Amino acid sequence: MAESIIFTGTTKKEKYESLIPQIKSLVEGESNYIANISNIMSALKFGMNFFWVGVYFVNPSPALPKGEGKVNAELVLGPFQGPVACTRIAFGKGVCGTSWKEKKTIIVEDVEKFPGHIACSSLSKSEIVLPAFDKNGNVTLVLDVDSESLATFDETDKIYLEQVIRIIENL
Predict the structure, then answer these.
(1) Reading across the β-sheet that carries 106-108, which strands appear in turn?
(2) 108 Cβ partners below 8 Å, 6+ apart?
(3) Are 53 and 137 in contact (CB under 8 A)?
(4) Nearest to 129 by CA among 149, 112, 107, 110
(5) Which tens digit of pLDDT belongs to each residue from 34-55?
(6) 60 pairs with which residues across the strands?
(7) Is the pTM for the entire model greater than 0.90?
(8) pLDDT at residue 67 is higher than 70
(9) Share of the chain residues as helix, strand and coil, in percent rounded to the nearest 5
């Protein structure tokens, strides 16, 4: 297990290319899922200087109403780095709930223009959310990354953060 992460590179691509192998090394040999997710969030926060980065776990909830077309689960906050965050997010609500529902990565250049955006922090201006899947194709969590600047995230972030998702899926 790595004791520290060395942050190198000047471009976004170079930073990710330096960081991804270190994240793999960081979780290698550690069996505790929460410890691994926590370290991945820290590596992403400090390696990429994100405003906020964390995961929301899909959490089955017997308290939620059942019925046709309803999902008896919600997203619940997991390990994160950054300011305090929303604790629970409903299926299909906000960027995280929409990523879960649509089972795809969503990049939002301006969160104020995203219908139904959930403002956990008024400082967040742009966002990327990526779902992670189990072996049956069910979403198990979403990785949420926020920036204090507009239009921070692009295809480069999508490519490399999807590599992080693959690491998480294999924990």
Answers:
(1) 88-90, 73-81, 52-60, 139-147, 126-133, 106-108
(2) 95, 114, 117, 126, 127, 128, 153
(3) no
(4) 107
(5) 999 999 999 999 999 999 999 9
(6) 73
(7) yes
(8) no
(9) 35, 25, 40
